[in-house]
């Protein structure tokens, strides 16, 4: 049975950091739609040229485009054992994801909750490596960056274009209005979990792990129950 995790939470909640850990723990790929789009922008592909302005303004890319991106990514062979989605779905995309999941087993939606003032503080401090994309922040996986250089590859650390004050406010607004309602969409599912993202990354990781294990147990039981039916 495949392990299909969907991470939900405001920007800066630590979804990327936790998804990275889960990837290592369970050997399934992390799929970050934000990363896919930023890469497309960096190489100026057709997709990149279409979405660059939208991302820089902190608005959402159209569902049309995102569904295509997600469908294409979820059709690749490396997701046969499952995946960790970070940044998708964000809207009614959730219904489309359910349709894409037919025959693949249930998803485990996990919400990382962090209050807005904490998020704003984290995002203003966040830096990313211009070369390899690793993320750093006072809350980040590797702590405060040393001399503005990436600990992994030595690349120069920069601020993400959409991490400036004005754009951060816009992204938080979009999250509250459009993405937070996903919680209502998913919360009645037996695999759903909610985690306190204000804790140190280690503790969040422990809670994530527990949520994934609980979700898998539910999914296994469901599979057994369904098998028994005519
Ligand atoms: P955040 O830290 O805001 O969660 P991401 O790296 O996930 O950042 O995404 C960065 C930007 O990419 C978003 O602000 C949005 O413009 C675009 N984007 C990423 N995923 C989606 C999606 N599923 N639907 C619409 N837009 C998206």
Gyration radius over CA: 18 Å
What's the shape? globular
User: How many H/I helices?
Assistant: 9
Distance separating the two termini: 20 Å
Catalogue the unreliable spans: none
Which features does this protein show?
230 residues; binds adenosine-5'-diphosphate; alpha/beta; three-stranded antiparallel sheet; five-stranded parallel sheet; 49% helix
Structural overview:
- The protein is built from nine helices and eight strands.
- The protein is an alpha/beta fold and 230 residues long.
- It is globular, with a radius of gyration of 18 Å.
- The protein starts with a strand and ends with a helix.
- The mean pLDDT is 91.
- It binds adenosine-5'-diphosphate.
- Adenosine-5'-diphosphate is lined by residues 11-12, 33-34, 37, 54-55, 58-61, 66, 87-88, 90, 93, 162, 171.
Q: Any chance you could write out the topology, listing elements then pairs?
A:
Elements: E1 3-8, H1 15-26, E2 30-32, H2 33-42, H3 46-56, H4 63-74, E3 82-86, H5 93-100, E4 107-113, H6 116-125, E5 127-129, E6 135-136, E7 157-158, H7 165-179, H8 181-186, E8 193-196, H9 201-228
Helix pairs in contact: 1-9, 2-3, 4-5, 6-7
The structure holds adenosine-5'-diphosphate (ADP).
Question: What's a concise summary of this model?
Answer:
The protein is of the alpha/beta class. Helices cover 49% and strands 14% of the residues.
């Amino acid at each position: 049975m495949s392990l299909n995790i969907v991470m939900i939470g405001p920007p800066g909640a630590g979804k990327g950091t936790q998804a990275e850990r889960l990837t290592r723990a369970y050997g399934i790929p992390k799929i970050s739609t934000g990363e896919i789009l930023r890469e497309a922008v960096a190489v100026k592909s057709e997709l990149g040229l279409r979405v660059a302005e939208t991302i820089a303004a902190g608005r959402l890319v159209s569902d049309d485009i995102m569904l295509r991106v997600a469908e294409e990514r979820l059709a690749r062979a490396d997701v046969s054992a499952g995946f960790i989605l970070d940044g998708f779905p964000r809207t009614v995309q959730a219904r489309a994801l359910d349709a894409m999941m037919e025959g693949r087993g249930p998803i485990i939606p996990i919400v990382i909750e962090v209050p807005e003032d904490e998020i704003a503080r984290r995002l203003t401090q966040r830096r990313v490596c211009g070369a390899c994309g690793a993320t750093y922040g006072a809350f980040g996986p590797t702590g405060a960056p040393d001399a503005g250089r990436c600990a992994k590859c030595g690349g120069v650390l920069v601020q993400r274009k959409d991490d400036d004050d004005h754009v951060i406010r816009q992204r938080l607004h979009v999250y509250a209005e459009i993405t937070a309602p996903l919680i209502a969409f998913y919360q009645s599912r037996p695999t759903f979990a909610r985690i306190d993202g204000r804790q140190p990354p280690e503790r969040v990781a422990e809670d994530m792990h527990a949520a994934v294990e609980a979700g898998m147990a539910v999914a296994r039981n469901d599979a057994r129950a369904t098998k028994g039916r005519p």
